[in-house]
Amino acid sequence: MRILGKASSINVRKVLWACDELRVRYTREDWGSGFRALDEPGFLALNPNAQIPVLVDGDFVLWESNSILRYLANQYEGAWLYPAAPRERARVDQWMDWQATDLNSAWRYAFMALARRAPAFQDAAQIRASCLAWSRAMGVLEARLADTGAYVAGAAFSLADIVIGLSVLRWRATDFDRPALPAVEAYCARLAERPGFTAYAEA
Description:
Blueprint: E1 2-4, H1 10-22, E2 27-29, H2 41-46, E3 54-57, E4 60-63, H3 65-75, H4 86-115, H5 124-148, H6 159-173, H7 182-191, H8 195-199
Parallel strand pairs: 1-2
Antiparallel strand pairs: 1-3, 3-4
GO molecular function, one term: glutathione transferase activity
Keywords: Transferase
Pfam families: GST_C_2 (PF13410), GST_N_2 (PF13409)
């Protein structure tokens, strides 16, 4: 198995953490900013969107990080991460989809402005709007974790915690007037007991 993408990418780190949980062996290749260009014809043949990560498993090629996680769990005996029962699986999917849409959309501008100091993300009004949207989204997560007392999909660790756990690190790494979220902090402490979280915890 080959994983194409630089290790600093949050979406690549999702895949690496999932592989560690499943004990799947792989070779990672550096692609992306600072490494091999994503517009090389060979890479575009694998992913026409010119984005990382890309998974190459024998003759099977897959892109989109959350889809890759689902594939890995299905292919490599990961039912404990991605349950087969329809309602349990739907709950994991719900939170994975929420991370990819609502949560990511909320934090993107503020994180790039305040944590990464990216010049293209310095509009004050957009920073404020992003911080507010991010705080609202994290409030949704706080309420869910307070309810479960454990993980986002319920009592058991799942794929949803891989994608949301790494996103939560960006919340903790960004300096703005953030509300206190004790359930989220307790959640991070639980995740920190997993070697994969520690290994791929870069914000």
